[in-house]
Amino acid sequence: MGSGQMIRGADAVIKAIAAHGVTTVFGYPGGAIMPIYDALYGSPVEHLLSRHEQGAAFAAVGYARASGKTGVCFATSGPGATNLITSLADALLDSVPLVAITGQVSTAVIGTDAFQEIDVLGMSLSCTKHSFMVTRVEELVPTLYQAFEIAASGRPGPVLVDIPKDIQLALVDYKTPLQAVMPEPEHTQAQIDAANALLANAEQPMLYVGGGVGMASAVEPLRQFIAATGIPSVATLKGLGAVTIDTPGYLGMLGMHGSKAANLAVQQCDLLIVVGARFDDRVTGRLASFAENAKVLHLDIDAAELGKLRMPEVAIAGDLRQILPALSQSMQIEAWQSEVQQLKAQHPWRYDRPGELIYAPAMLNRLAQKLPEDSVVSCDVGQHQMWVAQHMYFRRPEDHLSSAGLGTMGFGLPAAIGAKVARPSAMVVAVSGDGSFMMNVQELTTIKRRRLPVKILLVDNQKLGMVKQWQQLFFEERYSETDLSDNPDFVTMASAFDIPGRNITLASEVEAGLDEMLNSEGPFLLHVSIDDAHNVWPLVPPGASNQDMMDEMEKQT
Amino acid sequence: MIDYSVAISVQQQPEVLERVLRVVRHRGFKVTHLAMQLNENNTTSIDMSVQSDRAIALLTNQINKLIDVLDCQVLAGQINKTSASAKG
Hints:
The structure holds two protein chains of two kinds. By secondary structure, chain A is an alpha/beta fold. Chain A has 23 helices and 20 strands. In chain A, the strands form four sheets. Chain A has a six-stranded parallel sheet with strand order 3-2-4-5-7-6, with helices on both faces. A six-stranded parallel sheet of chain A has the order 11-10-9-12-13-14, with helices on both faces. Chain A has a six-stranded parallel sheet with strand order 16-15-17-18-20-19, sandwiched between helices. The mean pLDDT of chain A is 96. Chain B has a single domain, classed as ACT domain (Alpha-Beta Plaits, 2-Layer Sandwich), CATH 3.30.70. Chain B has helices at 16-26, 57-65, and strands at 2-11, 30-38, 43-52, 69-79. The N and C termini of chain B lie close together (8 Å). Chain A binds chain B through residues 121-122, 125-126, 129-130, 133, 150, 302-304, 307-308, and chain B through 15, 18-19, 22, 26, 57-58, 61-62, 64-67.
């Protein structure tokens, strides 16, 4: 139906966004998007100003991942749009529903190398699920509706809409388009029967749980499936939280830095049930020997993942919420369950490390114990990210935000900001490293601007730790450009943004430090100095099979 | 190496050929022949020959995911005898 009133394209953008239930957008203004920012002024849609477009888009990603809603970000043409690219790629690799709206130079000058003109549509091809450039104002509203549908449907992902300035200024009769629905794959009864036959014949089945479970809102169906079948489980980095740590047979994360029990059990299984996961190289190690005696049952919404890296015996593309209940059955696998339990008991995490210095895994495990039920932990990338994955635990996937596929340093702080906006009553902690933190440190101003009570736990070894670890292990200790001992004084820096903080260096200070951070009313920075000799263990070396994990060596004290 | 012939039907969008070719390159296939024709119903037919060591489903599954692609069919696949590999 038409409004009967002609409005500017820019106003139509804000109206279409509001119509999709979006109450907050993240962005940064500039010349080619000024009409949209003018329309935003005084509108019911709240805008959170970042201090770099990458920060805005990561905040939108954090908002989406913590809430399950679609995140929206704005940027201007040229450098504004190019600054979005990393975050779009991150959202693509982690299947995050995101709508990015960029201003573009006017249609009359597109292709003339106008000021702040770059071919954003061309750049978007490899880092979005889909993208549009609107060249007629009549197409604007239908395009925006389509963008929201594409972003959230099937396997979610980022969609970019590039809007030239003259289109933003042109008048349009706002008509709500008929909602286009993207086709979803549907499973057949024959596929379900084949999958059930595999399950019935399995003696040592194992669930390999990925991020697709959370994205499909299939956490509850998965938990019911586990309760009915008793099948042991492992999770990917993005799958953490789908299965709770007290679930019998749950062995935590698998892969390069997974738990030893998880990797060994997967290598021994005779049926691998892959749920919303994609055989990432960080998960499989040497692909040819990954669960090499197992048959594979692969369940995913994205048919292109089925058989991409490992040929499954049975594959079903479709909605996990429908498929998992159809596979539910009771199984006689007691011997395997106790074997898995034995593996878990043989390879526990240990937190009793001697010495006065802070042992980050123990500190993070303690943090997990202290967090209230409604909490979000947002990570950066590197050693601290793997320690969080190994030693913290989560009640649901939306509570753990980690740049998994792209592995983007600088993700943690802005994603935490977006999470806090999406879930204001949740305790939101950004766990970062001294390398990652500096990559989007300008977003401290965003925290200051809104007095957002985001807690920052900065794990500082004055190194680019994960790269240093690989230099130590695989590059003959040639520490090329990984020394960060010239870091700023982080507590002083935080104070410049009106964020209080403190530094701790001793294990005896961890308890009080965590309490002060969690009990502070506003934002807080807890700067934790750790020994740079601590590495992430265990580790599957590059090219090795997952059963050949390296443990901590004698010299790594 | 294996040669494949692929017929793709797409919606007419200015950038749709770029989208398809980007996927072909990125997923490890080489274009050896390309022809396209605009149809009256706002669709475009793309006939393409590609070459790769990889199974063609790895390409067609990705092409089918593109929003503007209406259909993607493999017409023929044959091993190129001058450079046949064990894979296939």
